[in-house]
Amino acid sequence: MRIRGIVKGTRQGFAFLTPEEGGEDLYIPQDALGGAIHGDFVEATLVRKSQRDFRAEAFVERILERRPILHTGNALRLARTLFVVPDAAVLPPRVRLKSGGADVPEGAKVLFRLEAALPGKPATAQLDSVLGDAEDPLLDGAVVATAHQLPGRFPEEAIDEAIAAAAKEDADERARRTDYSDRFVLTIDPVDAKDFDDAISLSKGPDGYHLDVHIADVSWFVAEGGAIDAEAARRGNSVYFPGSVIPMLPEALSTRAASLVPDEERRVLTVEIDLAPDGEPRATRLREGLIRSAARLHYEQAQRMLDSDEGDAETRGHLRQMQELAERLRARRFRAGGFDLEVPETEILLDAAGLPARIERHRTLASHRLIEEFMLLANRCVGRALHEAGYPVVYRVHGEPEIAALERFAEIVLTLLPATSTSAVETLPALRRLLTSLPDNPMRRIIHSFFLRSMKQAVYSPVDIGHFGLGIDRYCHFTSPIRRYPDLLNHRLVRWLIRAPEAKGRESERLRAWREAAGRHAGHCTRTEREAEAAERAMIRLKTLRWAEARLGQQFSGRIVGLVGAGLFVELEEVPVEGFLPRDAVGGDSRFVEERFAFVDHRSHSELRLGDRLEVQIVRVDLRERTLEFRMVGRRAGEPKGGRSPRGKRGKRKPGPAAVRRGRSSRDLRVKSGGRSADRGKGPKRKKVRRQPRSRGGGGR
């Protein structure tokens, strides 16, 4: 079978083929690339190595087009020839620069395009522009954005349309809106937030709570089918780097006219929710409204007001009522099947030169959870209302993990925490309790990371299959229309529902068009979200490597967070910076023993296991390869030299859960989740014990 698609290279040499007609990426072995490189449009043959191999591999037959994709790299002059060393390790290590680069100084950071080469001949590069000095950290954003083909400047037509939309007014439309100016409305966002798309107000009475979740009415400004809409749909979402953002909408809207800044009247779509004293939703109403935010708080400031007498009494009182309700909502959600997971995130503050001034682990505060619970509730209420109306919702769905992945996770838990009872990992409710009860220490983060890795990723879909991680269904994204296009799509449905309630349940030409487009938008926005997350991780990695580069030779304490046959992954305790400790640098006769998740020295019988503390030295940093290498200096004082043995009283390995003992049949599986059948997906590989944190935490739910 022949298939066409785009080659996506990897640093390891192999690649993936993204099919032209959609679907999952296909693996391309390194020796099957046929001269193709990252970004090439190719024709390939699908090959299965055996009849039992359900996943085909792609073998490139011919390169159809070497697309004019921009890349970044460093100019290098050898003798009288100018080359460019691409920043992307997925490209050839050195490419000759064609005519036009005579005036480019060596050591410059340049933008270039690869040009097609004759069969058997190396590719050449065509210069586009010179960005600056190759060593300038301020160019890191351009390097990462180019590597991930992120959008640059908005088209002039979109900018002009945004300026006009920001200035437009409609007195009759404004008069139809509900005025919330008598409510105490506030926003809580990160301290460096550039856009504010959600605000909240709450009142409490003898019968329960009344919560208003106000969301910037972006659909008022962005005309369907216009220039802004087309560009926002193409981008799919905003991308956030330390200290900067690549917005989905032009700044005239994203940071000004649509943003819910304090003391300014703003148009909103409001979800009014009446709740019982225990947090159970009783009624929901959707409104077009007007608000004037009274307070713009950041999370740390709100937390201080919750914990002390800081700030004015009125704001503190509202915040504490909000916290009370949020805790009740959170408890109800967990009882219904939601998971409370610690998602590793890194926060970086840059100095004026673009170098890290501070790197720290993100701390989840009660103020974060407060906003998260209210946004989750509003998203679910909107999803239910649109579903009941029969409208083509773009849902946010999260399939259940593969049975084999849960079995594997259970094995990992029983090995890493040998005192754990098998009953603690036999059912999903038991797993939920275990994950919540783990003490706040590095092992908790490791266990949570393994569970995250065992789960599928959430996606956008026109079909609701529920959200496993949250334990709910009828869930959509609605609360961030400034930075996510699916939210804007659902806003249009809400406006249609508010303005044309008589059309509820009836198909119209407009609804049919939306229904036909829902699947296309869902798939596209899932892909742009993945690319944005990959770019954000790449930027974090690049900045942490610059931090490490400035500390070559220095020693730090760290914890083992991953194991592979070639060595150990260690994360520093002082800062969340991860590097690799090669097996040869461990010393002794150490080998990776998968059954014990440990490196075992067969002479001394000492072990290095996940969570163990080490003293390491930074010995090598490679910005192009994005690698950091450590040398082991020793264990921390007082750290045991022998790891805990995952064996029972008779020297046998502790038995796994019933699902593991009885095999992989779904009929035998005792890991249950409220009746929904588990979907098949890709579980963690057995040959690698490596955490793969996901980004953006609750924002990506």
Descriptive notes:
By secondary structure, this protein is α+β, with helices and mostly antiparallel strands. Helix content is 28%, strand content 28%. It contains 15 helices and 32 strands. Strands 24, 25, 26, 30, 31 and 32 form a six-stranded antiparallel beta sheet that branches. A five-stranded antiparallel beta sheet has the order 3-2-1-4-5, with no helix packed on it. It has a five-stranded mixed beta barrel with strand order 6-7-8-10-9. β24 (555-564) and β25 form a beta hairpin. α2 packs across α5 and α10 runs antiparallel to α12 (442-454). The radius of gyration is 27 Å and the shape is globular.
Query: Which range best describes the helical content: under 10%, 10-25%, 25-40%, 40-55%, 55-70% or over 70%?
Result: 25-40%
Could you state the oligomeric state of the chains shown? Answer: single chain
Tell me the β content. Answer: 25-35%
User: Biggest sheet: strands, sense, closure?
Assistant: 6 strands, antiparallel
pLDDT < 50 stretches: 637-699
**Distance N terminus to C terminus?**
37 Å
Based on secondary structure, the structural category is alpha+beta
Average pLDDT reading: 87
Radius of gyration: 27 Å
